[in-house]
Write a structure and sequence with these properties.
alpha/beta; Rossmann fold; 6-stranded parallel beta sheet; 12 helices; Dimethylallyltransferase; coiled coil
């Protein structure tokens, strides 16, 4: 089995900085698992980090008006993991998009269901109420399992209908990775402060100008343009609040994963390093 190290946790906890230090220690390469950083030209608002002296994959993969799904990420990351391992280096996956990370390790049955563009074009003309009724008719349990926000999101509803119509398709097999999960967290007050400060620094670095440039070129209803930050600008306070709310949703997601070893985001690096050294030397990370 290929050994991989996964660095996860809420936004603004220093995941990439930690991963870069570990890459230097373990001769590794980074793979970004951030759904917002795959878009070219969306740099300041999404906070793309490019640590010096460390190779990082997964940034600037597509244009803002192109599609990039969980399935795209899994295919991309799996190919890279194999390539990195063949170079006798440690694949280090770093990011806060929990769905990407979970799907990489254990792909859901629906991941191999490809987009049905004809169906999507038909459904895009429907109202939210009509989409809800269509999904309920196909799979009431699937509709009930969606959170309130997704039940009102036409893009989520259309994908759910698409999946419900094709659940007999092929499935992706789970790769036999030897995964070591490390998470970074901190208390709510500290994290809120870190996020607020980071938003201020990004505004100072030109986030609003970046948003204005993109808004002039791309429709605001694109998935890329509806991401946190771009959706709230030019109001930095609203942006900070949205990031803080997102961080709590991230932690709620990750805390379900009992494999994660959590560290405070301000922990001494040597403690994390020594922990990983012990685990990587033992079978199955135990």
């Amino acid at each position: 089995m290929i050994k991989i190290l996964i660095i996860c946790g809420p936004t603004a906890t220093g995941k990439t900085a930690l991963a870069a230090k570990l890459a230097n220690k373990f001769d590794g390469e980074l793979i970004s698992a951030d759904s917002r950083q795959v878009y070219k030209g969306m740099d300041i608002v999404t906070g793309k980090d490019r640590p010096r002296g460390v190779k990082i994959h997964g940034l600037d993969l597509i244009q803002p008006d192109q599609e990039f799904s969980v399935a795209h990420f899994v295919k991309f990351a799996r190919t890279l993991i194999n390539q990195i391992a063949k170079r006798q280096k440690l694949p280090i996956i770093v990011g806060g998009t929990g769905l990407y990370l979970d799907s990489l390790v254990k792909p859901p049955a629906t991941l191999a269901i490809k987009p049905d563009w004809r169906l999507r074009k038909e459904l895009e003309k429907k109202t939210i109420k009509q989409l809800q009724q269509r999904l309920k008719k196909l799979n009431q349990a699937r509709f009930n399992s969606m959170n309130h926000s997704d039940q009102l999101n036409p893009r989520r509803l259309i994908r759910a209908i698409e999946v419900a119509k094709d659940l007999q398709g092929p499935t992706l097999q789970a790769n036999r990775y030897d995964c070591l999960w490390v998470g970074l967290k901190t208390d709510k007050t500290t994290l809120d402060q870190r996020i607020a400060e980071r938003v201020k620094s990004r505004v100072k670095a030109g986030a609003i100008k970046e948003w204005q440039k993109l808004k002039a070129k791309y429709p605001v209803n694109l998935p890329s343009m509806s991401g946190i930050g771009y959706r709230q600008l030019p109001d930095p306070d609203s942006w900070a609040r949205a990031e803080q709310q997102y961080a709590r949703r991230q932690f709620t997601w990750f805390k379900e994963n009992k494999q994660i070893k959590w560290f405070d985001c301000e922990v001494d690096f040597e403690l994390v390093y020594s922990y990983i050294c012990r685990k990587l030397k033992s079978p199955s990370g135990r």
